[in-house]
Prior knowledge:
Blueprint: E1 8-9, E2 12-14, E3 24-25, H1 43-55, H2 59-72, H3 77-89, H4 91-94, H5 99-105, H6 112-133, H7 138-159, H8 166-180, H9 187-195
Antiparallel strand pairs: 1-2, 2-3
Helix pairs in contact: 1-2, 1-3, 2-3, 3-5, 3-6, 6-7, 6-8, 7-8
Amino acid sequence: MIPLIGCVVDGCVIQDACDSNASLKTGEEDRMFELKKLSETGIEGALSKAERYRLLNEPWQAESICRDVLATDPENQRAIVMLILSLTDQFGGSGGIGFDEAKSLLAKLRSEYEQAYYAGIVCERRANVHFERGHPGCGELAYEWYKKALDWFEKAEKLRPPANEDAALRWNTCARMMMKHPTIRPAQHQAQAMLE
């Protein structure tokens, strides 16, 4: 069976499916594509799909859709928020890749409340990654990031719209994590415990 044109076989792109000796090409120039642009009328449907991909635990799919939306509407607040969340969903598997981008996207949010709230989310998720790794010193790192998250959620709580308790809920979750797990402690506390 002859592979389709453009199929990748062993990291190479098939150039000519008609030739029984189809040649394989490698190189960066073969990996560049002109991405399709979304129409403005397709944005809402695309964002709904992105949300579903996040719920299916496929954040890279959601990330791709958000990037497509932002290519058409760079100021779309819902796409920016979902991109931040999609990037933070991937913190654990990517060794922190995406953290700087998620942080930089915060400045694009128009609402001061959302900037503070999602800064807290970014810090909380970074803390979770450190905690889940379980290596020596990870509890200290997790503690520092949870503390930053608490500070951001506290700031967001002061800016919150009426009847919005999201920041308080996140603050409580971080506080419970810190109270529940004895390894999540400041660096000095851990050094002192080791000496005892």
